[in-house]
Structures are given as structure tokens and as C-alpha cells.
Design a protein that fits this description.
Blueprint lengths: L2 H115 L26
Length: 143
């Protein structure tokens, strides 16, 4: 065999190994693509119901928010009405109630003055040796 024939055989063997290697790579790539396709199909199969459930939940939340908004509007209206009512009651009854309270105070004061006109009976005090007068009853001396 000549050198050219050996080189030709080596080139043929190299190409055979290269083609075999590329065939193995292509087979593995095909398997990977099949597995990826199956995975995407499974994810899609599970994601569609989840998205439908999420959409229903969002719709339900929107309905509840609308109800809360209606309740808040009603509460605001009731608060406004209560404020108007308290203002009306205060302006209607406020003046007369102040006059009645002042009259009652005057009557009590007059009654207490009448009872003050009667002299009080003298009280007897006992002196106990060794006791001191409480601080509240002592007279403070000014220096």
C-alpha cells in the first residue's frame, strides 16, 4: 500500500467516525426535542385550567370590591345624615338646654344659700396628746 492509499483509508475512517458521531448527536437531539414537546404540552394542559381558575377568582374579587364600594358609599351617606341630624339637634335643643341647666344651677345655689343662713351647731374638737394635725389642715407660715 502506498502512502496515498493509507491516507485515503484514514480520511474514510475519519468521515465514518464523524458521520456516526453526528448521527448519535442528531438522535439525542431528537429525543430532547420530543421530551421538550411533551413537557410543553403537559404544562399547557395544566396551565389552561389554572388560568381559568385565576380568571374566575379575579372576577369574584371584582364583584366583592364592587359590594364593598357600595357599602362604603352607604356608610358615607349615613355618616353625612347623622352629622346633619346632630347639627340640627344641637341648634334646636342646645340653647334651651343651656337655659334649663343655668336655671337649675341657680335654684341649687339659692337653696344652698338658704341652708347656709341657719347657723351650724358648734362642733367640739378633741385634743389627743401626741398626735399631730394632718398636713392638709396645718396653716402654712409665711416667712
Amino acid at each position: 500500500m502506498t502512502g496515498g492509499e493509507v491516507a485515503g483509508i484514514l480520511v474514510a475512517v475519519f468521515w465514518a467516525i464523524l458521520v456516526s458521531f453526528l448521527a448519535v448527536v442528531l438522535v439525542r437531539l431528537a429525543q430532547t426535542l420530543r421530551a421538550t414537546t411533551k413537557l410543553v404540552a403537559d404544562v399547557t394542559e395544566q396551565a389552561v385550567p389554572l388560568l381559568a381558575d385565576a380568571s374566575a377568582t379575579v372576577r369574584s374579587a371584582q364583584t366583592q370590591l364592587d359590594r364593598v364600594d357600595a357599602i362604603a358609599t352607604d356608610v358615607q351617606e349615613v355618616t353625612s345624615n347623622a352629622s346633619a341630624l346632630s347639627t340640627t339637634v344641637a341648634s334646636t335643643f342646645g340653647g334651651p338646654l343651656v337655659k334649663v341647666a343655668a336655671f337649675g344651677y341657680g335654684v341649687r345655689r339659692a337653696m344652698s344659700r338658704k341652708s347656709e343662713d341657719v347657723p351650724a351647731a358648734p362642733t367640739r374638737r378633741k385634743v389627743i396628746v401626741g398626735r399631730t394635725v394632718p398636713a392638709a389642715r396645718r396653716k402654712k407660715r409665711k416667712g
